[in-house]
Design brief:
With about 140 residues, this protein is mainly α. The chain has one domain: Sufe protein. Chain: A (Alpha-Beta Complex), CATH 3.90.1010. The protein is built from 6 helices and 2 strands. It is globular, with a radius of gyration of 14 Å.
């Protein structure tokens, strides 16, 4: 299954009446991400600042940044899917121009996840934005 784009996710979440249904949708999105092989889950690929373990591999193909990610927590895997919908297979400029704060506000996400998960989410975003800035320079 291919991930929906960020606007499709915003639209899809708007259909659900409560956050329990939204959490399930987010978890299902996370399950659609292939994840990483165990040998790819190395310490140098861990994203610092996350309570759960999050591994990220990035590469540039045709001027677009691509990410392979995995987590040991199902809800975090779902949050990774939300981030990938915004950033995966985009140019560094598109990544840096994307208003992630508005996206999260539209999802009403940070009000419904723990502060620790919110910090981890911010760490993932910061890592991707740093990779985008580095690939421009």
């Amino acid at each position: 299954m291919q991930l929906p784009n960020s606007q499709e996710i915003v639209d899809d979440l708007a259909f659900f009446d409560d956050w329990e249904q939204r959490y399930q949708y987010i978890i299902d999105l996370g399950r659609s991400i292939p994840g990483l092989a165990e040998e790819d889950k190395t310490p140098d690929r861990l994203v610092k600042g996350c309570q759960s373990s999050v591994w990220m591999i990035s590469r540039i193909e045709g001027g677009h940044l691509k990410f392979d990610v995995d987590s040991d927590a199902v809800i975090v895997q779902g949050l990774l899917a939300l981030v990938l919908a915004a950033y995966n297979n985009k140019t560094p400029k598109q990544i840096l121009d994307f208003d992630i704060d508005s996206y999260f506000a539209e999802l009403d996400l940070e009000r419904h996840i723990t502060p620790t998960r919110g910090n981890g989410l911010r760490a993932i975003v910061a890592k991707i934005q740093l990779l985008a800035r580095q690939s421009i320079n």
